[in-house]
Design goal:
Number of strands: 12
Radius of gyration: 52 Å
CATH class of the largest domain: Alpha Beta
CATH architecture of the largest domain: 2-Layer Sandwich
Largest sheet: 5 strands, antiparallel
Strand order of the largest sheet: 2-1-5-4-3
Oligomer: single chain
Structural class: alpha+beta
Number of helices: 9
C-alpha cells in the first residue's frame, strides 16, 4: 500500500486557517439564520395574535350565536386579517364553522384546542404539513361578569400560511451561502500572509541549522519579537554558542595532543638513532658473548627497532594531522614497483603476484611503497603464508582507476572489527594473532591513499581470508 506523503507546513497552515474561517463563517451564518428566522416568525406571530385578539374583542355576538352569525363573524375576521390573509374557524358547543369552504381544518391540533381552553389570552402553534408551514392560533371569546373575565365557550382559530416568511428565510440562507464562498476565497490572502510570517523564521532556522551542520559554528539567527519562534531562535543561538565553545575546546585539546605527540616523537628520534647505532654494534659482538647475555642483547636490539618504528609512525601521523603531508607524484611502472617493494623486504618468495605489464600510473613512490608494505606485511603477519597481490586498471564513472588487491588465506576479519580496522592504535586481537606493530600501520595506509585521492576498503573473502582493496586515480603516461 502506497503511503501518502505528508503535507507541508505551509499547506497545513493555510488549510487550518481556511478551516477556522469556514467554521467561523458557518457558525456566524447559522446563528444569524436562527436569530433572523426567530425574529421574522415571532414578528408575524405577534402581529397575527394581537390582531386576532383586537378583532375578537370588538365582536358583538349574542350567545348562543346562530350558525349564520358565527360564519359571518369568521368572514369578517378573515377580511381584517394581518400581516397576511388568514382562514378563520370557530367552534362553539360542538358546532364548527369557518371562513373557508370546509368547516374543519387539518392543521388545528388537539393540543392547540386543549391549550386554548386553559389560556384565555390565546395560544399559538406552528404546524408543518408536507412542505408547508402554518401558524395556527386560538383566541377564546370572553365576557366580563362581576368584574371577572369568563370564557363564553366560543373559540376562534386562525390559520395563516408562512410561505412568505419561509421564502424570506430561504433567501437569507442562500445569501449566507453565496457570501461565504467569496469570503473563503478572500481568506486565502490573510492565510498566505500568516503562513509566510510563521514560515519565514522557520526557514531562517533551517538555513542556520544547515550552515551549522556544514561547520560554520559562528552562525546565529536574528531574534525578532517575543513570541515562541523568537524563543526558539534564542535557544538556537545559545546552543550554537555552547557548541562553538565546546568544539573550540576540543580543537585546542586535539591540537595540544598532536603537538605533544609530534614533539615527543621528534625528541625521541635523535636519542633513538644513537641507541640503534650502539645496538647494531653490540649485536655484531653478540656471537662472542655467553648465550644469556647474547639473548638479552638481541631483545634490546629488537625492542629498540620497534620503538624507532613507532616514533616514525607517530611523526608520520602528526604530519597528516597538521595537513603538512605533501604528495610528490611521479610516473612509475606499477608491476615493477610492486616487485621492487617485495624484494626490498625479502617477501618475493612468500607473495604471489598478478601484475599486468605496461600498467603505468602517476603516484608518490614513497607513499605508495608504504601502502604496499603495510598491507602485505599485515597479511603476512596475520593471514598466513599464502598472500596474493594483484593490480589492474579499471574504469569508473569518474575515470580510470588503479586497483590493487592484497588477499590472504587467514581466518579473516571479525565482522565487529571491520568498522574499526583503520582506526589508530586498534588491534584486532580477538580476531587475529596478536600484532607486534604499533597499531598505526593501517591508519597511515588510509591517510596515504586519501592523499592520492583514493580509497581503501577491507572485507572478508568468500573462500576465507581477508581482502584489502586500494583504488587510486590512474593517469596514463603522456
Amino acid at each position: 500500500m502506497r503511503r501518502i506523503a505528508p503535507l507541508g507546513l505551509r499547506t497545513r497552515l493555510i488549510a487550518a486557517f481556511l478551516l477556522v474561517a469556514a467554521i467561523s463563517a458557518a457558525t456566524s451564518a447559522a446563528l444569524t439564520y436562527r436569530e433572523a428566522r426567530t425574529a421574522i416568525l415571532k414578528q408575524s406571530q405577534d402581529t397575527a395574535v394581537s390582531s386576532m385578539r383586537d378583532l375578537v374583542g370588538r365582536l358583538s355576538l349574542p350567545l348562543p350565536p346562530r350558525p349564520d352569525e358565527l360564519k359571518s363573524a369568521c368572514a369578517d375576521l378573515a377580511r381584517s386579517s394581518q400581516p397576511h390573509s388568514w382562514m378563520v374557524y370557530a367552534e362553539y358547543a360542538g358546532n364548527t364553522v369557518s371562513s373557508a369552504e370546509s368547516p374543519n381544518s387539518t392543521v388545528i391540533t388537539d393540543e392547540l384546542r386543549a391549550e386554548a381552553r386553559t389560556r384565555p389570552n390565546g395560544a399559538v402553534q406552528r404546524v408543518r404539513k408536507g412542505k408547508e408551514v402554518y401558524l395556527t392560533f386560538a383566541m377564546p371569546a370572553t365576557f366580563k361578569h362581576n368584574d371577572r373575565t369568563q370564557s363564553s365557550g366560543l373559540v376562534f382559530y386562525g390559520v395563516m400560511p408562512l410561505a412568505t416568511e419561509q421564502t424570506t428565510v430561504q433567501a437569507m440562507v442562500v445569501a449566507a451561502r453565496d457570501g461565504a464562498l467569496p469570503a473563503l476565497g478572500i481568506a486565502v490572502i490573510p492565510a498566505l500572509l500568516a503562513a509566510r510570517s510563521v514560515l519565514k523564521p522557520v526557514r531562517r532556522l533551517r538555513h542556520a541549522a544547515l550552515s551549522l551542520g556544514r561547520g560554520k559554528l559562528d552562525t546565529r539567527i536574528e531574534v525578532k519579537g517575543s513570541d515562541e519562534l523568537a524563543d526558539l531562535a534564542r535557544t538556537f543561538n545559545e546552543t550554537a554558542s555552547a557548541l562553538e565553545g565546546s568544539v573550540e575546546e576540543l580543537r585546542q585539546a586535539e591540537a595540544r595532543a598532536r603537538r605533544f605527540a609530534a614533539d615527543v616523537s621528534h625528541e625521541l628520534r635523535t636519542p633513538l638513532a644513537g641507541m640503534l647505532a650502539v645496538t647494531e654494534v653490540l649485536d655484531e659482538e653478540a656471537v662472542h658473548l655467553d648465550s644469556d647475555t647474547a639473548a638479552a642483547l638481541r631483545l634490546i636490539t629488537a625492542e629498540t627497532g620497534k620503538l624507532a618504528a613507532l616514533v616514525e609512525d607517530l611523526m608520520e601521523i602528526s604530519r597528516f594531522d597538521a595537513r603538512a603531508a605533501e604528495l610528490h607524484a611521479d610516473e612509475v611502472d606499477v608491476a615493477e614497483f610492486v616487485r621492487k617493494t617485495l624484494e626490498r623486504r625479502h617477501w618475493q618468495d612468500r607473495v604471489a603476484t598478478e601484475l599486468p605489464a605496461g600498467l603505468r600510473a602517476r603516484l608518490d613512490p614513497r607513499r605508495f611503497d608504504v601502502v604496499l608494505a603495510n598491507l602485505v606485511g599485515n597479511a603476512l603477519r596475520h593471514g598466513g603464508a599464502d598472500v596474493h597481490v594483484s593490480a589492474a586498471e579499471e574504469q569508473r564513472p569518474d575515470g580510470a582507476r588503479l586497483v590493487v588487491r592484497v588477499a590472504d588465506s587467514g581466518p579473516g576479519i571479525d565482522p565487529e572489527v571491520l568498522p574499526h580496522i583503520f582506526d589508530r592504535f586498534y588491534k584486532a586481537d580477538a580476531a587475529r594473532t596478536r600484532s607486534a606493530g604499533s597499531g598505526l600501520g593501517l591508519a597511515i595506509t588510509l591517510e596515504n591513499v586519501r592523499l592520492h585521492g583514493g580509497a581503501v576498503r577491507a572485507a572478508n573473502r568468500d573462500g576465507g581470508g581477508a581482502l584489502f582493496t586500494v583504488e587510486m586515480p590512474l593517469e596514463a603516461a603522456v
